User: Which sequence fits this backbone?
């Protein structure tokens, strides 16, 4: 034991004498762990929120009965209970309180199924207080904070309705308010109406559903996975892929630092063996040392990961809310599992990065002379094998691209492509340098190329990290830029009306339309409708659109039959969203059967349109045909075309006259601004992780150059001795590194465009069901090339300055050591 | 074949030692049945041309490498029969090794380097270490690192480290090869005094006939055999 501690002390003493090397190792491990665990913290937080949300409002987990419309009569609930169905009523709606939109859930606590979430706790404790006036409004702690109210406060909705006093229930999802169903019906102005019926697990004789309710209700099976989890999977997969990439780039730094440390310590290891330390003891202590470093760096990395996650959480929460309606609390709560997994990743990463060095140390014969540059020669020999491995990875990428169909296989294509390119980089660079060497004239130029090639193995990992970071940056940047441009055009098409109205009921809709007809600034009233159906087990929205130039001229059609709009007007055809067409493999002229209350509605496909960001499928039909097929749906929705410059006063007037809040009345510019903001924030996280990865790659390059600069002296000292100044040598070193970095960055550009194509044509299509057009942005590419060169220049600065300022004694020492 | 001797049992008894190395397709026989004995308290100089196998013989005795044939007995221990752990324990507890390249641990101070082997052998004797420090003239250098020492100073530390465990046998592979003549003499004088004091056997590989002449006996290794 004591012997082991002494050996460990000797091993650790190396780091005390080489603090830069230790710093490099720690920076690599900390970055790798921090970025990985930060992303995991975000994913964990979001997933915990989905579970919490699903457990409370029962969106998908318990089996339930839903109506054809958004609400149905309470009488059906009574009929079902009498027929032996263990159902419990739920009414859902939205209210605005203190300017914040809340999801209001009315429940009936006595019949509420015990397995449906946290609500049953009120049954035993204070059922009476919950039901009897003034009742209770249960909210999550986060909602209470958002509302800036104390427990027991009775707030009013922005519409003026008095809410019961607030009470905190920790298990509730943020943004949800639960109260007694009777009170909810009053507040939402939906007397005797229900949104759905949750079905408890109690078994017993019950009449068939159709016999009790006819076709008014349909059964929705419980899902093992919540809707939110399914919808957001691709978002989290995307984050995880970025986390993993950053982790790998970080490990490149670790590998380079550990490799150099082991190389430098080889003589010490041999001396230890010569002094009588057994190889088993020595290897054991090397392992202990690595695990100690992993533990310390892992802990620091976890703290940094927490800070990164905390910084990114608002953007992630906003993206998830905007894209999927998921509510994520603003504060991170981390589980012990997260800490343990982070430390385990750090340890596994360290051991993986150190594997080759450790094996080399274990296998090293005790008598072999120290050969600091043997590594370089060995790696030269490996180049051939590396080239073959690169080719194999690229072939694998093509095979998975052709054979795979899932989102995971999409990411596998990306991974194989990036790994293959990274492996091929040193081989390609070696070829370029060899060509340079052969075509050079003069001794110094020949030395320049030959020495660059000699230096390549030591730099190759850092260059691979730079290549990956740049390629991903180009790929993601191109995708985001394409998305941003396409989205702006698409939004103009989809939000062509100037004002959007959703009246409270049909009567109010009629009143509003009557009053609008009298206003000259309103040039068109465009009635619309919306129904929720299922096609092939997938939720689909049916939109009813008026036949008007507003839609004919702007709707974002991707492909269409020549007489598409006339066909739609006839009620025989529909426009189909891209994701629905892809999912159901629909083509122009194909047929689609839509189930309506009156039976099946056969529609031919007249056009396919872009519907970016919508997790559901969508079809658009003529509003008259829609109304006749869905006669019972409220006709409360319509758009308005308004003379430019008159929109704001019109909206103000309508708000005052008809008491319409923002959820019922909005103008085009506000909607566009909100949508653009949501989509911009979606990519804020991606951009942040992108920058982090590029930063880590820069650090990898810096650390490699710093560590390499120490072993460069024996190469440079002879040139200095024969008459080159230190400044000239520094200039040559700078030029060499910048040339290699430039070649790497040049190779990263086409690779990045390939990554962009993969993201747009493979990953996005498989994740979301839609595909963006691919445009190349040369300015963006030139900008990244500049950033890469600047990063390389900055990374090279310190070693170059060190060389310029190096005392001659340090160079002379090289010759002294050669005695 | 070794000729048996009638005297008392030697400290080190090497018999018919052979070792072959492979160089590409070629096999090079470095030792072809070498025999050697060193008695307790005796100092022996092993000389010979470059490539004659001197260092190889020393490394085999130290258990740093494995022989192809023959035997090496140190007291009652057959070194060639030991596994890696046994050979490590032998080096740790019963041998002192001094190299031409000093082989100090660069990240440890002089004091820690001196005590290192004794500590991992669990035989650290602070009084003996103080005496070694005094005798080797290292008193002012204890807090320095190897890179801050001259060659002679580094070799004195290496000798101190090797003798700190009071080994029965000290093996030295051209310990003065990196030193100038005056420094070499100074280091050898110190080493000889200490060896005499501890009573250990001393086997030294050297090219220098002058240094070899200062030891009790010289043996010449030629073509893989002791002449």
Assistant:
């Amino acid at each position: 034991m004591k012997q082991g501690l002494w050996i460990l002390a000797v091993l650790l003493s190396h780091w005390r004498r080489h603090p830069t090397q230790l710093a490099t190792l720690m920076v690599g491990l900390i970055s790798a762990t921090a970025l990985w665990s930060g992303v995991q913290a975000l994913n964990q937080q979001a997933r915990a929120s989905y579970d919490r949300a699903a457990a409370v409002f029962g969106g998908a987990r318990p089996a339930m009965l839903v109506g054809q419309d958004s609400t149905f009569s309470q009488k059906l609930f009574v009929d079902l209970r009498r027929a032996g169905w263990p159902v419990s009523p739920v009414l859902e709606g939205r209210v605005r309180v203190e300017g914040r939109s809340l999801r209001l859930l009315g429940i009936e606590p006595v019949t509420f199924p015990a397995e449906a979430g946290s609500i049953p706790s009120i049954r035993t404790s204070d059922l009476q207080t919950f039901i009897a006036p003034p009742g209770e409004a249960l909210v999550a702690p986060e909602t209470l904070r958002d509302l800036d109210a104390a427990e027991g406060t009775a707030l009013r909705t922005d519409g003026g309705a008095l809410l019961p006093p607030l009470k905190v229930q920790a298990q509730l999802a943020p943004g949800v308010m639960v109260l007694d169903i009777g009170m909810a019906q009053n507040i939402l102005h939906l007397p005797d109406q229900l949104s759905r019926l949750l079905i408890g697990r109690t078994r017993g004789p019950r009449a068939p559903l159709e016999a009790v309710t006819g076709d008014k209700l349909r059964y929705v099976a419980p899902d093992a996975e919540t809707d939110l989890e399914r919808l957001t999977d691709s978002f989290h997969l995307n984050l995880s892929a970025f986390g993993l990439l950053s982790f790998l780039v970080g490990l490149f730094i670790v590998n380079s630092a550990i490799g150099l440390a082991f190389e430098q310590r080889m003589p010490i290891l041999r001396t230890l063996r010569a002094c009588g330390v057994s190889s088993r003891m020595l290897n054991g202590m090397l392992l202990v040392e690595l695990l100690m470093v992993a533990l310390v760096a892992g802990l620091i990395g976890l703290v940094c990961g927490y800070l990164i996650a905390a910084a990114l959480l608002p953007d992630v929460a906003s993206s998830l809310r905007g894209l999927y309606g998921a509510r994520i609390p603003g504060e991170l709560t981390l589980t012990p599992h997260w800490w343990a997994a982070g430390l385990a990743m750090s340890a596994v990463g360290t051991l993986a990065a150190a594997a080759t060095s450790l094996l080399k140390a274990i296998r090293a014969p005790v008598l072999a002379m120290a050969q600091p540059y043997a590594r370089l020669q060995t790696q030269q020999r490996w180049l051939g094998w590396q080239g073959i491995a690169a080719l194999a990875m690229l072939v694998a990428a093509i095979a998975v691209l052709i054979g795979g169909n899932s989102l995971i296989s999409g990411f596998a294509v990306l991974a194989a492509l990036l790994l293959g390119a990274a492996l091929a980089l040193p081989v390609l660079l070696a070829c370029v340098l060899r060509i340079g060497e052969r075509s050079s004239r003069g001794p110094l130029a020949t030395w320049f190329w030959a020495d660059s090639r000699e230096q390549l193995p030591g730099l190759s990992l850092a260059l691979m990290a730079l290549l990956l970071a740049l390629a991903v940056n180009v790929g993601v940047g191109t995708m985001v830029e394409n998305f941003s441009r396409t989205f702006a055009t698409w939004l103009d098409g989809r939000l062509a009306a100037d004002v959007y109205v959703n009246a409270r009921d049909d009567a109010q809709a009629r009143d509003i339309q009557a009053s609008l007809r009298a206003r000259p600034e309103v040039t068109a009233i465009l009635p619309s409708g919306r129904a929720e159906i299922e096609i092939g087990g997938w939720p689909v929205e049916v939109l009813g659109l008026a036949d008007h130039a507003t839609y004919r001229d702007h709707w974002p059609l991707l492909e269409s039959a020549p007489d598409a709009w006339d066909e739609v007007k006839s009620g025989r055809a529909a426009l189909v969203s891209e994701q629905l067409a892809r999912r159901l493999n629909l083509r122009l002229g194909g047929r689609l059967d839509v189930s309506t209350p009156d039976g099946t509605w056969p529609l031919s496909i007249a056009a396919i349109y872009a519907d970016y960001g919508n997790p559901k499928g969508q079809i658009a039909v003529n509003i008259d045909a829609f109304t006749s097929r869905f006669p019972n749906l409220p006709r409360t929705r319509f758009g308005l075309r308004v003379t430019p410059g008159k929109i704001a006063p019109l909206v103000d007037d309508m708000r005052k006259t008809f008491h319409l809040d923002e959820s019922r009345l909005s103008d085009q510019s506000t909607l566009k601004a909100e949508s653009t903001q949501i989509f911009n924030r979606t990519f804020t996280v991606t951009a942040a992780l992108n920058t982090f990865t590029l930063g880590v790659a820069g650090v990898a390059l810096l650390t490699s150059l710093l560590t390499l600069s120490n072993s460069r002296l024996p190469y440079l000292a002879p040139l200095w001795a024969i008459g080159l100044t230190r400044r000239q040598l520094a200039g040559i070193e700078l030029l060499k590194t910048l040339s290699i970095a430039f070649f790497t960055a040049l190779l990263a550009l086409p690779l990045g465009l390939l990554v962009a194509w993969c993201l747009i044509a493979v990953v996005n299509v498989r994740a979301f069901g839609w595909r963006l057009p691919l445009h190349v942005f040369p300015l963006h590419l030139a900008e990244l090339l500049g950033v890469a060169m600047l990063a390389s220049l900055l990374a090279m600065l310190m070693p170059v300055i060190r060389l310029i300022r190096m005392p001659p004694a340090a160079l002379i020492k090289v010759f002294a050591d050669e005695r | 074949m070794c000729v048996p001797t009638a005297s008392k049992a030697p400290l080190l008894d090497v018999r018919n030692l052979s070792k072959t190395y492979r160089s590409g397709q070629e096999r090079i026989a470095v030792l072809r049945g070498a025999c050697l004995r060193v008695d307790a308290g005796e100092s022996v100089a092993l000389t010979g041309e470059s490539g004659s196998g001197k260092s190889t013989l020393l490394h085999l005795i130290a258990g740093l490498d494995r022989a192809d044939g023959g035997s090496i007995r140190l007291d009652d221990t057959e070194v060639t029969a030991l596994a890696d752990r046994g050979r490590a324990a032998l080096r740790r507890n019963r041998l002192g090794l001094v190299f031409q390249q000093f082989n100090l641990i660069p990240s440890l101070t002089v004091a820690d380097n001196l005590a290192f082997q004794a500590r991992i052998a669990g035989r650290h004797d602070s009084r003996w270490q103080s005496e070694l420090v005094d005798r080797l003239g290292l008193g002012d250098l204890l807090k320095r690192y190897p890179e801050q020492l001259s060659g002679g100073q580094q070799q004195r530390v290496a000798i101190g480290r090797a003798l700190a465990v009071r080994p029965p046998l000290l093996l030295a592979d051209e310990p003065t090869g990196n030193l100038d003549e005056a420094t070499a003499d100074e280091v050898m004088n110190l080493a000889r005094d200490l060896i005499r004091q501890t009573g250990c056997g001393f086997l030294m590989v050297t090219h220098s006939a002058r240094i070899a002449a200062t030891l009790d006996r010289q043996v010449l290794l030629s073509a893989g055999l002791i002449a």
In short: Chain B touches chain A through 31 residues (CB under 8 Å). The mean pLDDT of chain B is 88.
